[in-house]
Amino acid sequence: MRPNRRAVISGLVAAPWVLRFGAARAASASLFPLGVASGDPSSDGMVLWTRLALDPLAADGQGGMAGAVPVRWEVAEDEAFNRIAVSGETIAESARAHSVHVETAGLRPGRPYWYRFTAQGQRSPVGLTRTAPAPAAHADRLRLAIASCSNWERGYFSAYRHMAEERPDLTLFLGDYIYEYSLGRDRSAEVVRPYGLEEATTLAGYRNRYALHRTDPDLQALHAAAPCLAVWDDHEVHDDYSGVWSKTPGVTPDAFQARRAAAYQAFFEAMPVRRSGLSSRLYRRARWGRLAELHMLDGRQHRSRQPCPDPETGGKGQVIADALCPDRLDPSRTFLGFDQERWLYDGLGQGDARWTILGQNLVMAGLRFGDGGPDTPYWTDTWDGFPAARARLTEALATLRPRNPVVFSGDYHSFWANEVKRDPADPSSATVAAEFVGSSITSGGPPHDAIMGFMRHNPQIRFFEGRVRGYMTADLTPDRMAVAYRAVSDVRDPAATVSTLAAWVVEDGRSDVLAA
Asked: Considering the entire predicted model, what is its pTM?
C-alpha cells in the first residue's frame, strides 16, 4: 500500500528498525531504511535525495551494498501520483555509498510536489517538497523551521517531529547535524541512547554517523515534509576546528585535511545539496520570489585559525582577553574567507528582496564576559574571535543597506534574540540587523546562570535562555517577520511535547527586535 502524505509526516512509514547495542540496524531487507529528502529548491526544481542500504551501519560504510544499482525517480503534482510531472532514472554507485542526488528542472514555480524512488522492485517512502516562487513573483508568505545541534546520545529527536508538524515551506539546518565523537565512560550518565560507534575520523565513520541519524523516524518525517537548506558547523568534522587546523595538538594541517576531506564527502553524500557542493563550496543563495533572499554561509572551511591557540588544546576556542591575545584584533584574519566575503557583499549590494536572510553557524552579535575593556574575555571560536571580519560585515550591512537583514544562527545550544550593531564594540551604535539564535535539538546547554551574570555588559542581547532545547520557526510576510522559540519538554522523552518559549517580531523597515 502506497503511503500518503499524512503517514509520511507522522513518521509511520519510516523503514523498520530496531535498537541493538544502542545502534540502529536494518530490521528487514528494505533498500530505503534511511528515508528520502529534498533540498536547495529553485523556482523550477529542487534536489531529491535517498540512499540505498541493506545494512545502514555496515563497518565499511557501504550500507551492505555493492555494485551499481539503477534507481527510478518520479515527481508528481498529486500525492496519488496520477499526474507525473517529471521522472527519470539514475545510478546509485558504490563510490558515493549508493546515495542518490537528482537535480530536477522544468517544474512550475511556487507549488508543492510529491516524489518517490524505485529500485530493484522496491519503492521508497513518499516525500513532499515544493518549488520556490518565480524570482520576480510577489510571494505573500514563507514559513521556515530552523534547527541545529542534534547529538544522538543526548536525547531523542522529538523536536524534528514537531518541526514537521509545523508544515514549514523550508527547513534550515545551521550546523552540527551529526556529532563526530561519542561520550566516554566517565560521562555515561549523560547518555540517553549511545552512538555505539567509534569517533568518526574516516569516510566510513562519517557515513555511519549520518546513516544512524537518518534511521530516526522523527528526522525522516521532517525531511519528508519539506525541502531544506543545510550548512555545517564543526561537529560535521571535529570539535572547534578552523579551516585546515584541528584542535588536536601535533596534528599537521595536511593530516587534518585528509580527515576533513572524508567528512566533507560524507556530508555531500548524505545531504540534499546540488552537485556544485561536491567541489566543497557550500555557501550559496536561495530566493523565495521577491519576498526573501537567503544567503547560506560557510563559517568553518575558509576561516583563519582561532586567535592565540592554546598549545595544550591546539586550535580549540577559549575565553581570553585582548590584553593576553592581541592577535584577536588582527584585521588580516577572516571568518568567512575573503572570497566568500566578496561574494556575500556583492549579493547584499544587489539584492532586491523584501527580507535579506543570513543563515549561518555561530552567534554574530557577540558576548562580552566583562565591561568591554582590555581585560574583557571573549570566546574565540565564534564571531567574537574574528572582530575585524565581523566589523567588515556590519559595515557592509550599514553601507549597502540591504532591505530587512536578519541573521539566523546556531551552535550555542541556547535561545538568543540580538541586535547586531554597526560597531559591535559599541552597544550604543546603530543596529544593522536582527539576529535570532536557536537552541539545540538535543545537545546540552551552556551555563545559563553564569552567562546571565554578564548580561548587564551586553545590552545588544535582548533575550537569553540556555536551559531548554528546541528550534525556531519564522513566518515571513511583506510587512513583518514573526519568530517563535519552540521548546521541547524533555529530550530524554521520545514523546516530548512542545510549547512556545518566546515570540518576536521584526517589522519591515526596522532592524530592532520587538517582543510579540
From this structure: 0.94
